[in-house]
Amino acid sequence: MSQRANATFQAKSWEEQPHHERDDGPKLTRASVTKTFSGDIAGHETLEYLMMHRTDGSASFTRDFPSSEPHEPNERGAYGRHPA
User: pLDDT digits over 69-82, tens only?
Assistant: First the structure.
């Protein structure tokens, strides 16, 4: 028998800081994102993403795992014209 939990999450904060910027190429940033969960699962988490913003308006990101955390699957994505 399987069990199912229902919950929702909401991004509570998104703080993005420059990581590396060039005049002739993509802008690299680090985003710190805090989410809260409610429902059958309640709590919060803070994630760190490394992002690359291209000059055409598209972007790619990957989750940055601190060295103190156990290895987790890589999380990555994109928006705009380019695949992750």
Answer: 555 556 778 777 65
- Residue 12 structure tokens: 């509570």
- Global pTM value: 0.67
C-alpha span between 1 and 73 (Å, rounded): 27
**Measured between alpha carbons, how far is 65 from 72 in angstroms, rounded to an integer?**
8
Q: What is the mean pLDDT of the chain?
A: 83
Tokens found for residue 73:
């699957």
CA angle 6, 44, 28 (to 5 degrees): 115
**What's the CA angle centered on 82, arms 61 and 33, to 5 degrees?**
20
Question: Where do the DSSP E strands lie in 21-71?
Answer: 27-39, 43-53, 59-63
Domain ranges in the chain?
15-79
